[in-house]
Each structure stands twice: as C-alpha cells, then as structure tokens.
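Same chain as my last thread, 163 residues:
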Amino acid sequence: MSVAVDIVRAWRAPRQAMHRQLADGVREDRALIYVIAACLLIFIAQFPRLWRDSVQNPELSFDMRVGATMLGWVFLAPLALYIIAALSHVLAKPFGGQGTWFSARLALFWSLLVAAPIWLLNGFVSVLAGQGVIANIFAATALLVFILVWCASFIEAERKRPD
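reply #2:
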C-alpha cells in the first residue's frame, strides 16, 4: 500500500495506521525515510514565509534564510527527533510501556510525516494571511494534529503485544 494512502487513513484512525506500520516488521530504512521525508516537507513548507521575511526585511537574503532553515530541518531536526523518540521510550517504561526503541522511533517519525501536509498548508496560509491570528491558528492546528497523531501512535507502539 502506498504511503500517501496510509497517511490519509492515519488522519481518520491513527492507532490502526500505526498498527499497520508496526505489522510490517522492523525496517529501520523505512523509519529513516519517514523522518527525512517529513523534515524535507516541513522545510519546503517554510519557503513562502522565508520569501516574505526576506522581502520585508532584506538584511538577510532569501538564500541565507533558506540555508539556515535547511540546516535546522534537514540536518539537525532528524538528530533531535531520534533523541526525542529515545526519551519518550524511556519515559514510557515506568508507565508500563512494552514497545521497543524502533516502535518509539517509528511512532514519532510516522506522526511527523502524517502531519506534514498540514505544515505545507500552514506555510501557504502564512504568506497569504501574513503574521497574525489566522497564521497562528493554522500553526497551532498543525502542531495539535502532530501531537494528537503522535500520542495515538505512541500508545499503539508501546502497548503490550500478544506473544
């Protein structure tokens, strides 16, 4: 099944989508592709805002802004996400978490990929609406979608599996 179809299904039923992801077995290459794809999409979503900011404040060129954003989203964010996934797995253990390091990573990376389309929409809206209430609402919605999907996916990733 295609990833795009799985993303659409995850919007309706994130736990079931995560269950399907886990049923495919431990595939570290898939988790790595998910985090890279999600970070690339979020990086691309920043372009309209970066362009607007460079026009409004030309002290920093568009190229410099893109370079700094690329460093953050494409190179540093995946490393930080690996650390966040590990910490979430460690924190789940005292509360009865039965998952693995891989399932914790997959839950986080998959959730970020599922939320990436709304980040793209957020980037578009931030240019049309400018800085203000509407842009803040879309940014908060993107963050909320990510958190909700991650929570549902993480619960599924850390639940006890039948032997």
